Amino acid sequence: MLIHLDDTISQLGDDLTPGIIGSLEDVAAVVRAGTHIVTGNISTLRYLASLDCLGISARSAFRGLANKYAQFASIKSMVTTFAEIILSENTPTASRRGDVDVISIPLAYVAQLNLRSPTEVIYEEIQDDFIYEIISRWYIQEKLSPGFLNRNYRPIHGGGGRTHAVYAEAQRRNNQFCLCVTDSDKKFPTDISGTTSAEVRAVNDIHQALSSHLDLDFHEVENLVPLSFLKEKCTSPTSQAIAEQIKGVDAAGFPEAKLFWDYKKGFSVGGLKQLNGGWDYWRAALGLANLSCPDTCTPQRCQCEVLKPWPEKRAVKDQIYQYAKMDPSECELLSSLWADIGGSLVSWCVSAMPKPA
Ligand SMILES: [Zn+2]
């Protein structure tokens, strides 16, 4: 996270209570640890470096920041979320300023926090980190100049249906930055979202400003993999045919369909008809006739496959686990989703120093 020291801090004057001094020492400790980027206007940083009430080490941390001022100041224009430390008596608050989300933390409150810890990123499954890393790296390379930023975060395993409990606990502590990432499990745009994201939404307390729910709307992480990549790495006739089918939905005017197809299980007529609106959507997207099931089908067991399950799951997984380079530019919708995801993740995880190996 980028933590900006607001100009009002240089108006502290002689009003330096032990609590305020403790908070400033803590900010200096964050500067030394490098787990987040601390910035401020040069006058504020010089003021802090001049404070006699701070320890030598804290003052030299602020002096070092003042010297690196230019290097870090430009990063503020690259993030979509940042934190600021302000003079106020209240609790942390979140607000939107133009296109940017701002977390305002009162200076006196800093002493209650554990800002030296890196941002926690809670995933439904810890392995989700691989694909989100691929997207973050793409984002840094494609969208940011100078094209290089350090990041430092701790990935946390939500554990599927337990994700909301892990996130609720992080919110209850409310003492460090935490982002919880979920997908919607939806099989078409107007489908009802799955329980994992619904439960996180239900526990999410937007007043706990240090944490946030990145509530993403697509079926599962494999839907983030560009079709051209799937086609290149999976060459079996079935894979190629599925990829062509999904590509066809673009031409039919349903570019969003690629975010909702069921990569793992595929689709059957009976299965889709069980979902309210599912059959109508996919019938139009895939350009199918109005098929009806023979008597041998039950809603639970339907043999009328309209989209097969992806056959080469292992190959895709291997590529993801090797952080293979992928490019979403074939699809405007996917590119914009990648940019939103990359912007959020990079902003929440940006750091002054790289993560220790
Ligand atoms: Zn059937």
Task: Describe the protein in words.
By secondary structure, the protein is of the alpha/beta class. The model has no long low-confidence stretch (mean pLDDT 94). It contains 13 helices and 13 strands. Helix 5 crosses helix 13 (332-349) and helix 8 (227-233) packs antiparallel against helix 9 (237-251). The longest helix is centred in the C-terminal third of the chain and has 18 residues, at 332-349. The structure holds zinc ion. Zinc ion (ZN) binds at residues 268-270, 293, 297, 302-304.
Which terms would index this structure?
single chain, 357 residues, alpha/beta, 5-stranded mixed β-sheet, 13 helices
Layout of helices and strands:
Layout: E1 2-5, H1 18-33, E2 37-40, H2 42-49, H3 56-67, H4 69-73, E3 81-86, E4 93-97, E5 100-106, E6 119-123, H5 128-143, E7 150-151, E8 153-157, H6 163-173, E9 178-182, H7 195-203, E10 211-215, H8 227-233, H9 237-251, E11 267-268, H10 269-274, H11 278-286, E12 305-307, H12 313-321, H13 332-349, E13 350-351
Parallel strand pairs: 1-2, 1-3, 3-5, 6-8, 6-9, 9-10
Antiparallel strand pairs: 4-5, 7-13, 11-12
Helix pairs in contact: 1-3, 2-3, 5-13, 6-7, 8-9
Zinc ion is lined by residues 268-270, 293, 297, 302-304.
